[in-house]
Amino acid sequence: MKGLVLLAAPRGCCAGVDRAVSAVERALELHGAPVYVRKQIVHNSYVVAALQGRGAVFVEETGEAPDGAVVVFSAHGVAPAVRAEASQRGLRVIDATCPLVTKVHREAARFAAAGYDILLIGQPGHDEVAGTLGQAPGRVHLVSGRGDVAAVKVPDPAKVAWLSQTTLAVDEALATASALRERFPQLLDPPSDDICFAAQNRQAAVKRIAAESDLVLVVGAVNSRNSTRLV
């Protein structure tokens, strides 16, 4: 008996990833190699290897790029301090930050300007989280899950808001937010949903297809939060 292969829909890269990869490709066309990229443009080793083959040079920090070089910021976004350093060194910056990440950055800055502390639900060490923490240093506190809630300390429990890393699983993020609200009853919600709609759609598609399948294979990179959340 032949097996039946089901394909989830939607699947594949989101518009933000396509936009970021296209930014590096276009930079190589316009400026020639090398084009420096801070961090992996997206967390996908196959995409990174293909761009390296065309002359992209991936670095951990802008300080590794020579003065005046063309530098692309990854889809995960950066802290204002990184932008300031790039400007001081005369780097020619192309910003490939996902617009949804930029939205979270602006929300963090607005909450902080209004005197709120921000509880960021996210993954420690993730590139996106580092950029969001840097939007208001000292005012954004990382909460990786329900287990972190009891240890959160803020100056004024009545002036707190929560935001989320865009690539989390929706159910997990909401469970952590619920635990935060139990601890801080006056907790403010994000102005709009922070978790990427493309990530949500793909998570929902995997849930649907899993109910009809004996095995679900996720094609992705092990350092991709989106891929591991789908698994």
Unreliable stretches (pLDDT < 50, length at least 5) are none
| Radius of gyration, CA atoms, in whole angstroms | 19 Å
Order of helices and strands: HEHEEHEHEHEEHHH
Output the structural class: alpha/beta
Tally the helices: 8
Distance from N terminus to C terminus (CA atoms, Å) equals 27 Å
User: Biggest sheet, strands in spatial order?
Assistant: 2-1-3-4
User: What is the β-strand count?
Assistant: 7
As a percent range, the share of strand residues is 5-15%
Shape: flat
Task: Quote the average pLDDT.
Answer: 92
**Main sheet attributes: strand count, strand direction, barrel closure:** 4 strands, parallel
| Helix fraction by DSSP (H/I, runs of at least 4) | 25-40%
Oligomer: single chain
Describe this structure in words.
- This protein is an alpha/beta fold.
- Helix content is 39%, strand content 13%.
- It has helices at 15-31, 45-53, 80-88, 99-113, 127-133, 170-183, 197-210, 225-230, and strands at residues 35-38, 56-59, 70-73, 92-95, 117-121, 140-143, 160-164.
- The strands form two sheets. The chain has a four-stranded parallel beta sheet. It has a three-stranded parallel beta sheet with strand order 6-5-7, with helices on both faces.
- The chain starts with 14 loop residues before the first helix and ends with a helix.
